[in-house]
Automatic annotation (TrEMBL):
SUPFAM superfamilies: AhpD-like. It comes from Amycolatopsis pretoriensis. This is Alkylhydroperoxidase AhpD family core domain-containing protein. One of its GO terms (molecular function) is peroxiredoxin activity. The keyword Oxidoreductase applies. Residues 60-108 form the Carboxymuconolactone decarboxylase-like domain. Keywords: Oxidoreductase, Peroxidase.
């Protein structure tokens, strides 16, 4: 299967996005067009986890901003190490789509054994000690190696937060695999090889090029990001855009309830039953419970947020904004639960 055909097939997967209709590339205008062009230039393809946001242009820009500046853009950490974090967070969140994508990317960077161990949920099987520790940290199961500099630790945290967010969006709006259903079973192994090749990064784009997609924020970035740096600026702009979207599309009582529940949560999945949510939702007025249910499931159990919980009379933009706000609220809390800095600082960079 030729790379061009895989790129074409991936564009066609925009039709497989669930519950909302993504803007087609040829119809993209304004901010959506600008984001699409950057995604294809810097990521190598129009990734459906970003395109699914396109009904809400500001939220689309925010999603790309956090992905680009955490995972894709130049920094002190290697792309392979950042892919370890992306894959490990995705595995912890039971997001098979993202595990597959970032496992393929990690394999293309020379770490197929680590990718396989992460996908199997067995980080202890990773042979390299630093990689094993990094994957365990990303899953919330340990600390970073002591010699990781503070700036590099911040980059790893940025990737973790970005994927806690994207995993939830993908779980709601996409299926379990990045390959379209049209790819026949006998061709899937070859298609994954080609897709892994396409995911292998080329020239590393400079940090900060996506900042201009959104206005500067009035607040500082997250506490784990170096003050005044690109990551702080990127996450502040993205957070401001998604918070504004939440104010438009999420009832204030729902926002208060979800913030309270996420703050008290330890991050562990509540299980397969949905019964846990009903006593919490009972405090909402009846007409807000559907929105509350979707927001709460997105934050704490995105695998339970299917089409059956979509609020009535919610258009695509409002639906994306509601889910995005809940996903970011949970992602920010997940980032705060991680140890952000190593136990001692060291000016030496991490490998690669």
């Amino acid at each position: 299967m030729a790379p061009g055909l895989v790129r074409f097939a991936l564009r066609r997967t925009l039709r497989d996005i669930n519950h909302v209709e993504a803007v087609r590339p040829r119809r993209a205008r304004g901010l959506v067009r600008d984001v699409y062009r950057q995604v294809e230039r810097d990521f190598g393809m129009l990734a459906p986890p970003i395109a699914l946001h396109s009904a809400a242009p500001d939220v689309l820009a925010a999603a790309w901003l956090v992905l680009r500046e955490s995972l894709v853009a130049a920094g002190t950490a290697s792309r392979a190490d950042k892919e370890v974090v992306a894959a490990a967070v995705s595995a912890a969140n039971s997001c098979p789509y993202c595990v597959e994508v970032h496992g393929m990317a990690l394999g293309s960077l020379g770490e197929p054994d680590a990718a396989a161990a992460i996908e199997a949920g067995d980080t202890q099987a990773i042979q390299d000690r630093d990689t094993r520790a990094l994957a365990a940290w990303a899953r919330g199961e340990g600390r970073l190696p002591a010699d990781v500099p503070a700036d590099t630790a911040a980059e790893f945290t940025a990737v973790a937060v970005a994927f806690h967010y994207l995993n939830r969006m993908v779980s709601v709006f996409l299926g379990p695999s990045p390959l379209p259903d049209a790819v026949p079973p006998q061709a899937r192994a070859k298609a994954k090889t080609v897709l892994g090749y396409l995911l292998k990064p080329g020239a590393v784009p400079p940090a900060g090029a996506a900042l201009g997609l959104l206005p500067a924020a009035a607040t500082d970035g997250p506490g784990w990001a170096p003050p005044g740096g690109t990551l702080a600026d990127a996450f502040a702009r993205a957070t401001a855009a998604i918070e504004a979207a939440g104010e438009r599309s999420v009832p204030s009582r729902v926002r208060e309830l979800v913030r309270r529940e996420v703050k008290a949560w330890d991050g562990k999945p509540p299980g397969l039953s949905r019964a846990w949510a009903e006593p919490v939702l009972a405090e909402l007025p009846e007409h807000e419970r559907a929105a509350g249910r979707l927001a709460l499931f997105t934050a704490k159990a995105a695998y339970q947020a299917d089409a059956g919980v979509r609020p009535e009379r919610t258009d695509d933009r409002a639906l994306v904004e509601l889910v995005s706000w809940a996903a970011l609220t949970a992602a920010v809390a997940a980032g705060e639960r991680l140890p952000h800095r190593p136990r001692r600082e060291d000016s030496a960079g991490r490998r690669g």
